[in-house]
Amino acid sequence: MPTVRFYSGECEYEIEVPSGTTVMRAAVDNGVPGIDGDCNGECACATCHIYVDPAWLSKTGERPSTEEELLNFASAAEPNSRLACQIQITHALDGLRVRIPDSQH
User: Which residues face 7 on adjacent strands?
Assistant: First the structure.
């Protein structure tokens, strides 16, 4: 089963995630703090903003235009910003590392 590593402040959370699960769902279902997912993964709120480790960015794919527009409203967006609801875990993403922003608002 693929593993995702979430970093929030000084804390690290290593979560085993079934393939096909989104990064947002993995975080919410496993109690990782800092990812709200208010729209339940519908790419409509940007409360699952994350920073993908640059080494993994090309493997997570391009940001769709809807995601790009929502990230314009996210606080502290960076070039490696993504919405966790738009990244679906596959075996190719085993070991994915993401950092959670200090705030989603």
Answer: 12, 99
